[in-house]
Amino acid sequence: MINDTVNQKITTLAGALIDQHKACTIVEPYADEPGFWFGGGNMIAADDGGLYIAGRFRNSGDARTGVGKGARGLELAIFCSRDGGRSFEKTISFSKDDLNTDGKQVVSIEGVALHVLDGAVELFVSTEKSGIDYPAGLEDHKKPGTGVWTIDRIEAASIEGLKHAPVQPLIASTDPEFLHVKDPVVHTNDNGDTILFFCSHPFSWTSSNSAYCIRPAGKREFGDPVFDFFPRGNIWDVTVSRITDVLSIPGEVFKHPETVQMVFYDGAECIRRHDENSRAVSRPRGYSCEEIAGLAVYANDRVDKIRRISNLNPLFISPWGTGCSRYIHTFSLPDKVIAMWQQSQTTGAQPLVMHSLSWDEIRSIVKGA
Fold first, then answer.
1. How far apart, in whole angstroms, are the C-alpha atoms of residue 339 and residue 333?
2. Burial label, 21 (beta-carbon count in 10 A; 0-12, 13-18, 19+)
3. Which residue ranges make up each domain of the chain?
4. FRET pair for 287, CA 20 to 30 Å: which of 19, 183, 205, 327?
5. How many helices (H) and strands (E) does the chain have?
6. At CA 366, angle to CA 361 and CA 369, rounded to 5?
7. Region of residue 119 (left: phi > 0; alpha: psi -120 to 50; beta: else)
8. pTM for the complete prediction?
9. Pick from 124, 215, 206, 109: which is nearest to 165 by CA?
10. Which whole number is the average pLDDT over 302-323?
11. Does the domain made of 40-228 have the CATH classification 2.115.10.20?
12. Residue 74's beta-bridge partner residues?
């Protein structure tokens, strides 16, 4: 059981890691204006010594009209750093057409995740595809020009080989409550199991929810999805609760007997921008494409025991623009932990920013909390 003292230490550490003012921009979007961003991915270390970031460039658009008002999820890109994360260069790019599969055309690219497994590299990618019908009786809810979100997997012997490897369907749904699935997040448990978190939306697009499925160690296929383990919150995250990362910290750091899993998630109170009372407290509420973020926790890989820390308020808000601070991802190295996320700017754009803490700094922060 994680007690309140450990919760406070976890919260303090998370705030120091996701430092909005110390973070530096590592990937700029294609335009410095609202509706443009890069992120929604992760970082891995490859056998060639490089640090690789996968994510997607998004250009301005309106999800309610498909591609009718902008290019939207334009490109999946992989960047490489050869200097320990100080700079990144784009090495591979996938267009929407590159990700078409089974005769279905990609309308937009959303979250992605790289993963190293048994000498191979996997790339999980979520795309909105045309040519997929809504369930019987709900056909009219599908707006012209839009599609259905599904998750695919690309596997190759190397990162470079991903570009020409086949796109294989992985997760799709016909259940109206979980019709759209996207934003894959990969986490490896201590026992070698791979847990794939992802986001789901109902046919009506009124909420964002979290789900997961598990691939046992040594196996090639994932088990059935679990959709109801992390219900949306009651206040600031009542509309969106989308898990974006799990960071494992040795229990000894917190003086706790078990390994602690820090769970970062995007939350929002609205789907569209909320009209505030001018005489009331003004605060970022988060809404679709402008989410803010919070923290949950579980221990010893017991994801079924997950619980929120940020019940009343979000923990991660950009001091600029809409306050959007989302798609947090962390990556542990022997000497430090790196965090990156999409951060709203005064212009409304959302570049990918990064901040890191050494393990010595982490222990010092936790000790002083």
1. 11
2. exposed
3. 1-28+237-369, 40-228
4. 19
5. 2, 19
6. 125
7. left
8. 0.96
9. 124
10. 97
11. yes
12. none
